[in-house]
Task: structure prediction
Amino acid sequence: MESAFEFAPAIALFPLAAFVIALLFGRQLPKRGALVGIVATGASLVFSLWAALAVATVGSHREPLFEWAVGEPTSETGVEGIEFTFGILLDPLSTLMLVIVSLIALLVHVFSLGYMNAEGETGLPRYYAELGLFTFSMLAFVFADNLLMAFIFFELVGLCSYLLIGFWFRTESAPSAAKKAFLVTRFGDYFFLLGVVAIAATFGTLGFAGEGSFVEAAGEAIDAGESLFGVDPELWVTITGLLVLGGVIGKSAQFPLHTWLPDAMEGPTTVSALIHAATMVAAGVYLVARMFGYYALSPTALAVIAFVGAFTALFAATMGVVKDDIKQVLAYSTISQYGYMMLGLGVGGYVAGVFHLMNHAFFKALLFLGAGSVIVLAHHKQDMWEMGGLKSKAPVTYYTFLAGALALAGIIPFSGFWSKDEILYDALIVGIEQPVFLLAYAMALLAVFFTGFYTFRMVFLTFHGEPRSDAVRDPHPVGLSIKLPLVVLGVLAVVAGVANLAPVAKLTGLEITFLEGWLEGGIGEASYLAYSGAVFEGAEAVYATGVIGTESTTVLVAAGVSLLLAFSGAGAAWRLYGVPEPVRHTESLGGAYRLLRANYYQDEYQVWLASGFTLPLARAADRFDQGVIDGVVNGVSSVSLFGSGRLKRLQTGIVTNYAALLVLGFLALLVALGVHGGWFL
Amino acid sequence: MTVPIEYYVLLSMAVFCIGLFGVLTRRNALMFLMSVELMLNAANINLIAFAFYHGNVTGQVFALFTMALAAAEVAVGLGIILVLYRNFRDVDVTVPSAMRW
Result:
């Protein structure tokens, strides 16, 4: 089993090899590089499972692989020289994520055979090469053992999503969407970089877990009460944690940096599935989970995470209600669901957050691939008002999509219910003792209703009723490569909840919270046991938790309320859109409809910030630079130019004059020296 | 019997002033060169007189250097004067005045 760790770097290197092969020889290969990608991601999946098995039997593993720089010991607390390394960290969290990422990547590659190859797209070698690089970056990000390596691959993930969103670069919208995605996430990553530098400078180490990790160093600094850079250690941890959170908010599309994600729908649908389920967007939340021990040291940072998440969950869910494009609805649902994960992590529900990350990866990949299938069926139409009636014509797509929709809406017993309910439960029990968190709970709860509504609005408009265009009356057939991933993910979306049936465990006392047990292991402080101890137990607990009556009633109340809201949302969608000829009900919302259609004018105000505020500021700075800084330099030169223009008249070209000047100058110097030296007194 | 140092200084001052006067007033390049020689030799007189006065030979050595320098200077100066004559058919130093800005 130990040998699994030796082969662990290969998990990421397989897709990298696929990238190189597809890039160089893609044109000559059968299927234009798809098979290479499938083999590589399949091998990654096998090795990830093997690594997970090894973690289960042998325990977690951390190993530096490559050291590229050693610095001087100038940090605030660290005593040894800081080392910048590439290394792998295999613990329950990272291996779980490795399995998820490689599985989704594999299924996306298979699906691409039907979605891209069968449609005769051009540039397929480029497409598969970029998919390979994307998978490689994410896998390397997941098993990174230090923050700097994580940052490097975090950036690489951003680059790959830029490339893939702009895959159809000859259109007008795709390149601009790609640029937007890149710039908005870069804005967040700027803060992330500052955070990395701050943490490195403070603790002299960037390791995530185990001996000499910055999490441990921060905990010791807080215990010792030493001041870091002249401020309270807890405040400093909060500041650096929030700086890193900037990158998370950008990547995981949280308010206010969520605007790039809906535009990212310009890429191929398969890419959207990968971005939303396993790679790009998941990277942000995964990073919070990865350094959860650090955030657990700072109640302020946790509260910020919780409120950003809860607000984003509600905010994005309301926008999803009015969208007509099937991919747009899914995009807003992604933003909303990642908001839930942030809320879960923010209220200390580490297991709940990771659980939802896992379930969401399955059902969101399923929904996006399902949407891809629908788009194929509807001859590349994406407007749901031109669909309808696909239920009987494409049963596989319908039933798998329905499974994903039920999971997304949080209907019992589909996977999404269990994880979302656990997040809401964690928010509720914290909110009972700290009432301010009830606000976050309320926002998340309200979002459940909207989620149910937009999900089933999408399902009814797409699959039910009468066909509303010729495209769906005669749907394009879909092949096995499309159906197979849908079935695999459909099964997972239904059963993945079994991994952690926390409410059932609490009610019956059965030991069936497998995921919690899995996450309890880990290196040093980086385990769920340590996290829950830091957040909920002891004299310095971040959160106190309470119950309504007994624990069982709390569980039932939380689950009941969220289920009721999910059912009422779904029911409202059924009443309004589950008819043969649905009409556009959302337009009757009037002003609210216009506000939601315009996405709360988020793009407008951000564009205004750029053009109305930053641009004049930059102009003023430019004027200062050109006028004052350059002005001084240019002034000096023009004064000397002018002065020497006049002074050069002194030169006559006649040697005698020079000699006279020389003598006069010497005499003047002599007189001056004499006066100064007092010779004439 | 020795000559007091003041006489040497007066002599060298006179020779120097004659040389300086020549440099400032003469237009003929040859006269110019000769004036410069006078100034150099005025300095030589001083050097040797004070060397004798102080009883060491450093000043005499310096005077030798100055003479070597003067010889070199004359060689270069005569070269310049030849070129001057070839170009201007004259050795008047005020005629070539193009060497300026």
